[in-house]
Amino acid sequence: METWTKFLWLVPVLMAGCSGTSPSNLGLTEGRLASCPNSPNCVSTQGADAKHGIDPIVYTASMEEAMDRLEQIVRAMPRTEVVRQEEDYIRLECSSRLFRFIDDVEFWFDDANKLIHCRSASRKGYSDLGVNRKRVEQIREQFNAAGQGD
Asked: What is the pTM of this model?
């Protein structure tokens, strides 16, 4: 078998290993999303340090209207799947274009304070080249452009 043919058989095996398994610590625990790991491939509105911290999304409409608007935004994003949705929580899986690496993205609607807390983290690897931060900022921009769900 030629070398390039051997490589073609290896590609699906390598690609399957890129997605990883869903972390067991996702979701809400006492009104908090999971902490970010030490690696720089995660951002959270509930992060304790500048490396991982990012501002929550502010809304002024009802929680239901804000959730509808956020859902419209994320469902329009390529390679994004809503995998869990509850009354005040949405979890997504976002795949990278080339290697199909999976990022887990969570949104929790803190209606008492009119804030959408979020956490976006890569399942695998160390650096994400700022992809998770950029994703959250892009979602915030689109949300705010729509009048914060008003």
From this structure: 0.83
